[in-house]
Design brief:
By secondary structure, this protein is an alpha/beta fold. It has 13 helices and 7 strands. The protein is globular and about 60 Å long.
Length: 280
C-alpha cells in the first residue's frame, strides 16, 4: 500500500496526458479498481467516474488514518516532502486517573451503572468506546439484567434497541471485552463528556464511536449535521500524545425505526471494522 500511495502521489506531480474525457475531467483513478459493493451509499448517487474518484479520496484518507495510528504521528514522510494530516487541538482532559479504583470513584455516573459497564474492562483490550446520549435509571435497568454484553447495552437502550445494537456489535466482530458503552450526559444539567475523555485516556481505545447527533456534538464540539459527518474519521489527541479516532454513527434507535438506514449504518460500521483490521 505504501508503494502504491507514493507512486500515485508522484504521478500527481508529473501527470501523463489524459486518455479519455473522463480522465481529463477527473483524473485517472482506474488504479484503484472497481467500486466496492460496500462503499457508502453517498457514492451510489453520482456518475460512475465521480463515484470512483470519491472512493479513491476516501481510500487515501483511510490510508492516512491508518498510518497516523501505526506511526502515532500527524506528519507522514513522502518522497520529496511531508504530508500533514489535519487534527484539531488536543482535547483537554479535566481529570486523569492512574488506576481503576480512582477512575470509578471520579466518574459521575451512578456507581451501580458504572460497575455494570466497566466490569472486566481492561486498558489495552478495549478497542471501541461507544458514546450514547443518556443512560436509563438503575431501577429500570436492574429489572432487565441479562447475561453478557446485552446487560451493559440495556443501561443505554431499551431492550429491543439493546438487542439490535448487540447484533450490530457482533456483526462488527467485536467481543464484550473489546467494547465499552458510556453516556455523554445524564440530564441537561449534568454533562458526562469529561468522563468520556477520562475513560478514553485510561482504557485507550482505538476509536470513539459517537451514537447520535447530541453525543457527536458533545465530543467533537461541532455543530455540523450528523448526516454530513457520519462514518468519517476525526483524529483527536488526548494525553501523552495518545491519538484516538472519533467516528460519528447514527443512533441505533433511528436504525431500528428506519429500515433504509440499515445500509448506511452497515457501511459506516465496515469502515470501523477495516480500521480495526477486523476485515481486509
Amino acid at each position: 500500500m505504501d508503494a502504491i500511495f507514493k507512486q500515485k502521489l508522484l504521478g500527481l506531480r508529473h501527470p501523463q496526458a489524459p486518455r479519455t474525457f473522463g480522465a481529463a475531467l477527473l483524473g485517472d483513478t482506474s488504479w484503484w479498481g472497481p467500486l466496492s459493493e460496500t462503499a457508502p451509499s453517498l457514492l451510489s448517487h453520482v456518475p460512475g467516474e465521480v463515484s470512483e474518484r470519491a472512493l479513491v479520496l476516501e481510500s487515501l484518507e483511510r490510508f492516512a488514518v491508518d498510518k497516523t495510528r501505526e506511526e502515532k504521528t500527524l506528519v507522514l514522510k513522502i518522497p520529496g516532502g511531508e504530508l500533514h494530516v489535519h487534527s484539531e487541538a488536543p482535547l483537554e482532559i479535566p481529570n486523569f486517573y492512574g488506576n481503576a479504583a480512582d477512575l470509578r470513584a471520579g466518574l459521575g455516573l451512578d456507581p451501580r451503572l458504572t460497575d455494570l459497564v466497566l466490569c472486566n474492562k481492561t486498558p489495552g483490550k478495549v478497542q471501541v468506546l461507544f458514546v450514547s446520549e443518556r443512560f436509563r435509571p438503575w431501577n429500570e435497568v436492574a429489572l432487565e439484567l441479562k447475561s453478557g454484553l446485552e446487560s451493559e447495552l440495556r443501561a443505554g437502550f431499551p431492550p429491543r434497541t439493546a438487542e439490535l445494537f448487540g447484533r450490530m456489535i457482533a456483526a462488527m466482530k467485536l467481543s464484550q471485552e473489546e467494547v465499552l458503552l458510556y453516556p455523554v450526559e445524564d440530564s441537561d444539567e449534568l454533562d458526562f463528556a469529561p468522563d468520556v475523555l477520562a475513560l478514553a485516556t485510561f482504557y485507550r481505545p482505538e476509536i470513539i464511536v459517537t451514537l447520535g447527533a447530541k453525543a457527536t456534538a458533545r465530543i467533537l464540539k461541532s455543530t455540523d449535521r450528523l448526516s454530513l459527518v457520519h462514518g468519517q474519521f476525526f483524529p483527536r489527541q488526548l494525553a501523552d500524545s495518545y491519538m484516538v479516532q472519533v467516528v460519528p454513527l447514527f443512533h441505533p434507535s433511528i436504525i431500528e425505526t428506519n429500515q433504509n438506514m440499515k445500509k448506511t449504518a452497515w457501511a459506516d460500521m465496515q469502515k470501523v471494522m477495516k480500521h480495526l483490521k477486523k476485515i481486509p
